Each structure stands twice: as C-alpha cells, then as structure tokens.
Amino acid sequence: MSCGEPHETDCAEVLDHLYEFLDHEMPDSACTKFEVHFEECSPCLEKYGLEQAVKKLVKRCCGQDDVPSDLRAKVMGRIDLIRSGLAVPEHDVAVTPDEPARGPAARGLTTHEVSPAGADFPGVAKE
User: Fold this and answer.
1) What is the pLDDT of residues 80-116, one digit of tens each?
2) Which residue in 43, 92, 95, 115 has a CA-CA distance of 20 to 30 Å to 2?
3) DSSP string across 86-126
C-alpha cells in the first residue's frame, strides 16, 4: 500500500514495522520518523488507527486471562529459536486427538515457509 506521494520514510517501511511501532519496540528516532510519516500520509494513519483499535479490543476482551507459565516459556523459546534462525521441530506442534490440525502445519507448510505477518526473521520466509 502506498499513497503515491513521496515521503522521507516509504509507506511500505512504515507498514512493515507498524506492530513494532504500536508495541513501542523501536528506537525513539524511528518512532519520530513514523510519527512524521503519519502526519503526512492519511492512508498509513488510517491503517495505524485501525491496528491500534484492534490491539485495544483484543487487550480488553482477552487481557484478563492468565497464561500458564509453561505455555509462556514454550512460546518464548520458539520465538528465540526463530529469531536465531533455527527451525522449530515439527514434533513441537502438538495436536490432541480430539482437536483437528490447524494452521500452516496442517497445510503441509514448514516453519521456514511461514512467519508472522510483518515479521522479519532471518531464514523465515513471509507468506
């Protein structure tokens, strides 16, 4: 998506790193660049507002659930593996007999063929 107008920071860069901006996971200098871009670019500002609203809605609806510590540790371990460029073993994806397989593994994709939207991890291709 691009508004077609020239900007110091390209729309594609802003949208690729929008969640980092929303989650305050960027250096201040990058945040300032993005804020300037949002002042100049209505389509990106609209996308930012939409994603911010979804994030608030999810937090309000799902933010009260406690995450079991073993699940949190497992998820954080996978994130560390992916960031380091290592493959997540397929046997780590557990499906109970009563639960149908879902997600990329059910479609025959490996962790090297799928990554979270907007993620930029070495060795992991985007969908």
Assistant:
1) 888 887 776 666 555 444 444 444 444 444 444 444 4
2) 115
3) PPPPGGGS---TTS---HHHHTT--TTT---TT---TT---
- Residue-level pLDDT at 83: 81
Task: Kindly report the number of other CB atoms within 10 A of residue 51's CB atom.
Answer: 16
Name the residue type at position 24. H
Kindly report the pTM of this predicted structure.
0.49
pLDDT the model gives residue 119: 42
Among candidate residues 68, 114, 118, the one with its CA nearest the CA of residue 88 = 114
Q: Cβ contacts of residue 51 below 8 Å, gap of 6+?
A: 18, 19, 22
Torsion (CA) 76, 77, 80, 82 in degrees, nearest 10: -110
